[in-house]
Amino acid sequence: MHAHNDIRFGLLLTTARREGQDESEVFARTLRLARHAEDLGLDDLWVTEHHFNPAAVGSSALTLAAHLLGATSRIHVGTAVTVLSLHEPVHVAEQTNLLDHLSSGRFTLGVGRGVPGAEHDVMGRGLGSWRAGVAEPLDRLLAALHGQVPHVPDASGADGATLRVVPAARTRPHPPVYVAAGSPASLTVAAERGLPVMLFFDKGPDAKAEMRALYERAAQEAGGLPVPSHGHRHAFAVFAQVTETERETAQLMRAQAQFTASLNKRPGGPSATPEDVARITDKLLTTQPVGSAETCVDRLLQHISASGCGRVMCQVESAGDTASVLRSLERLATEVLPVVRQRAGTVPAGAGADV
């Protein structure tokens, strides 16, 4: 197995609202989980962005990341992701640099195009911008993170002055930027720019291995190295939870499949069918590190080995109520992750290279 000397384990916070919960309860749970993750020695927190979906109430990953950075002192916080087509890239760069300073370098920006929902019609430039992908806004973001952006020419047609982005980044050359990669196109965009990628729940170990190979080929064809810039390694997300019985595992993954299906539903569009939910459930049950502690260890190692990723984003909120979720996090941090580090030949990120 390939050794990962700088592997980082993090918690993916989805601000998911279960039946009977209000928004205040969801955000209170999110804050408790974030602080508990830091106390347990996890390396990262990751937060999501969703719009117009009552099942996921986190509408701004950047705002939530800022709050969690202020509520913690050691753990790193990243967005997974900021939906770039819904935000002005230069403004995202300004906020990224600001958080970089305020957190003493603990912020990571993850960007992507999200799902083709109504938010692109209401807040963005329509589904055409979603279909166009992230290349154009990503290049605008990166130019701003490097410090300068060209001013739009005035009405006379004269060239505008170059503007300096303020504040400049604390982390040089800029804070880490990750690109969500759900397709070969987005993977190639990241590889051509030397940026690490995030892979999500739809990719099992075999698919991750294929994506890794495609990234390396695209990077080589672009004249770059088959590893991301800055030494930052790729990341992937998994559902991770220690359970007592197979029945409990199946119930949790079915609930998670229903939640996942809701995130991909356009308002007014057809609901997921029972067959859709069953298909997603079966895939989760065969690929995700959910089950006994040993099952969780084995599957995490499979994902790490196949993907070559050095950052793991664990989603533990399937249990629902806050007490169960906190206990799930504790079991993951004490019964699973230390064994994974040991078997993968790793050390805690704080004792080695800081990604």
UniProtKB/TrEMBL annotation:
Pfam (any one): Bac_luciferase
Record-annotated Luciferase-like domain positions: 8-302
GO MF entries: monooxygenase activity; oxidoreductase activity, acting on paired donors, with incorporation or reduction of molecular oxygen
Gene Ontology terms: cellular component: cytosol
Keyword annotations from UniProtKB, A to Z: Monooxygenase, Oxidoreductase
Entry protein name: LLM class flavin-dependent oxidoreductase
